[in-house]
Amino acid sequence: MKKILLILIIILTTSCKSSINYLKDGEFKELKMPYSVKDYPDSSEEFYSIVNASGTNLNINRNRALLEAKTYLSGRIKTIINSVANQKLSFSNDIESEEFDQKATSISNQSIQKIIKVDSKIYKQKSGDKYDLWVVYKVSLDDVVAIINDSVLGFDISTDDISNVIDETVNDISNVVEETVNN
């Protein structure tokens, strides 16, 4: 029994030691990101986007970060609209479906006009003139719901509908991951 315990301790300390050596002796080091998705999780009230832009012109970096956040959030909003529409509507032909898609795109573009900057950090290269900009943006889903319900989509939406779509998406992703791991 003592021999098994001793062997187990040796294996555990050796395996832990090799991971420590990787960080100390390796060419790589662990980086700490300025913002974490854990600190800004999407919810039934808000969607967040953490973006980064690097370059020598800080104004261009700000514009690139804002554009990236708007693109990401707009896509998320359009996905939500389409998911709820698939549950509540049925299209009789491709023309109706295409018209709806155009309206959904317009609504998602209107929604991103409500984007709010939550926080930002700017880093400057020690030897050089390069900036690294990190920004957290959010959009309130109450604003998105109001825009959707003021439009003529053929249905009304609530934040509960959005929560249901998010939950279904998380479940779908979990199922795919589980299937991938099991195969």
Model description:
The two termini are 37 Å apart. The protein is globular and about 60 Å long. The protein contains five helices and three strands; from the N terminus they run αβααββαα. The chain is of the alpha+beta class and 183 residues long. A hairpin with a 6-residue loop joins β2 and β3. α2 (58-88) crosses α3 and α3 crosses α4 (141-150). The protein has a three-stranded antiparallel sheet.
Task: Sum this structure up briefly.
Helices cover 58% and strands 16% of the residues. The chain is of the alpha+beta class and 183 residues long. The longest helix has 31 residues, at 58-88.
**Proportion of strand residues:** 15-25%
Measured as a percent range, the helix fraction is: 55-70%
Q: Find the structural class using helix and strand composition.
A: alpha+beta
Q: What is the H-and-E element order? A: HEHHEEHH
Main beta sheet strand tally, sense and closure: 3 strands, antiparallel
Low-pLDDT windows of residues: 12-20
What's the total count of β strands?
Answer: 3
State the helix count: 5
Provide the gyration radius in Å. 23 Å
**Overall mean pLDDT score?**
83
N/C terminus separation: 37 Å
Task: Give the strand line-up of the largest sheet.
Answer: 1-3-2
Shape: globular
